[in-house]
Amino acid sequence: MKTKANQHGLETLLRFYREMQRVRQFDQKAAELFTQGRMAGNIHTCVGQEATAVGACQALEPTDFITATHRGHGHCLAKGGRAAIMMAELFGKATGYCKGKGGSMHIADLGLGILGANGIVGAGIPIAAGSALASKIKGGREVTLAFFGDGASNEGAFHEALNMASAWRLPVIFLCENNKYGVSVAIDRVTSIADIADRAKAYDIPGIVVDGNDVVAVFEAVSAAAARARAGEGPSLIEAKTYRHRGHYEGDPQIYKPADEVAAWKKRDPLILLQDAILALDPAAADKLAAVEDEIRREIEDAVRFAEESPYPGPAEVVSDVYAADNERSVAR
Ligand SMILES: Cc1ncc(C[n+]2csc(CCOP(=O)(O)OP(=O)(O)O)c2C)c(N)n1
């Protein structure tokens, strides 16, 4: 898809750039700290995929909802998550989004419409359909967007959710970030079609392929899908073709990725593409780009300091918020 960046104006593109820098720098710093053994658990970074998270969330309203994945730091930051509270969650600290008990793969903030990242591949897809059903029943105008990977599109939950969402015309957007691999398995080894968006045909909904490294293309596709959902016309499936620069997990030797493939995608780094678009619009904007990078560097440094200085949750907190309270009474007899 051709970039229509110049139609959006410098201010908008710089806003996208700031958000993408925040996602990039957060995950680069998280990877560095994890490798130094300074945080527990595991992390999956989304370096290289910033345009999908930011393009999609910029097209949503604050009252809209998202479900995120195990590679969800970018999704949560782009939907309004604060870097310091996110970093504290990665460190397992009491000041984190889930009081340190969710960790990297389970960040949620219902106030921001972040219904949760999820360590179960594909699990966010039916949750998003359920959220959209709730909006429809209540007569609200909110849209729910589910982020998921190419691997998740081969899960049964994907097909069940698309079927019901289509049958009930739910206000939901299914956004597949096709980064070519599920762990170390290339998508074309486990999927016979070239475009996952083609699966939309089976559910009689729009299936759109976008350049997932072009933030403006993602923004435009999600804006159109959100307008369609709000108009009561039902769901859309958007496939954003992108690439993860780092391993599936930190420490992954990535021997399954051909070197020329990595080099070709790095040339199409979403931040570089956006920088080029901004400089084409205003050659004098280089200083502004540098200032944004510095501003975000300070924000991430502050986030790390906040996380490191925060306390761990106390032993009394071990089971709070983990089990539903008085569950028996909520079950219909
Ligand atoms: C139901 C389920 N099956 C398998 C796994 C193990 N697993 C974790 S991530 C992953 C790959 C997911 O690939 P994809 O959906 O393409 O997302 P990506 O990692 O590429 O962002 C797998 C198989 C899991 N967590 N949950």
TrEMBL record:
Its cofactor is thiamine diphosphate. InterPro entries: DH_E1, PDH_E1_Alpha_Subunit, THDP-binding. It comes from the Bacteria. CDD domains: TPP_E1_PDC_ADC_BCADC. SUPFAM superfamilies: Thiamin diphosphate-binding fold (THDP-binding). Keywords: Oxidoreductase, Thiamine pyrophosphate. Residues 19-315 form the Dehydrogenase E1 component domain. This is Thiamine pyrophosphate-dependent dehydrogenase E1 component subunit alpha. The lineage of its organism: Bacteria, Bacillati, Bacillota, Negativicutes, Acetonemataceae.
